[in-house]
Design goal:
With 167 residues, the chain is α+β, with helices and mostly antiparallel strands. The chain is 25% helix and 35% strand.
């Protein structure tokens, strides 16, 4: 079993793996932040509160303040590294409204860049799923088709969701 005494700088302790201890300490340190904030990446947490309001970067995009935190082994001890950071978030809401606002206010910027790495939450058949947007199409759900083995051939997106709504 690894304990903090293995970090004492003793040459006999050099083969001990400190990673389980560091991982456990990171879990303890980040518990509150993980419950109350939004985690981005490995150790960065962001919070939406009355005290720290986000500010608008572009149409549909805002910046949030947060912090990063991690435990690290250093010579003869453990160190907790804490720092402030910011990141951009899309404003929550209807995606179609966000796209219309982006097109209206972006002076010709590329819509695909707006949606790059964007994830949306869907609720179909009572299940919530978070999915990344792959591409924004210029066609409607009625005009866009794909092959679906379950329904025996090409089917429109609109028809697929209509059929899937009624078991």
């Amino acid at each position: 079993m690894l304990t903090v005494r293995h970090l004492n700088g003793n040459i006999g302790s050099r083969d001990h793996d400190t990673q389980p201890l560091v991982s456990a300490l990171n879990l303890v340190l980040q518990t509150h932040a993980a419950r109350t904030g939004v985690r981005v990446g490995k150790n960065r947490y962001f919070f939406s509160s009355q005290d720290s309001r986000p500010f608008e970067l572009a149409p549909g995009v805002e910046a949030w303040k947060g912090f990063f935190m991690s435990a690290r082994p250093v010579y003869k001890e453990l160190m907790v590294n804490v720092g402030v950071c910011m990141t951009a978030f899309y404003k929550p809401g209807n995606l179609a409204d966000a796209i219309i606002e982006f097109n209206r206010n972006s002076n010709g910027a590329m819509l695909q860049r707006f949606a790059q790495k964007l994830k949306v939450t869907t609720s179909h058949l009572g299940y919530k799923q978070k999915k990344p947007i792959k591409k924004i199409m210029s066609t409607t759900a009625r005009q866009t088709t794909f092959y679906c083995e379950e329904y025996g051939g090409q089917i429109s997106v609109e028809e697929y969701f209509k059929r899937s709504s009624f078991p």
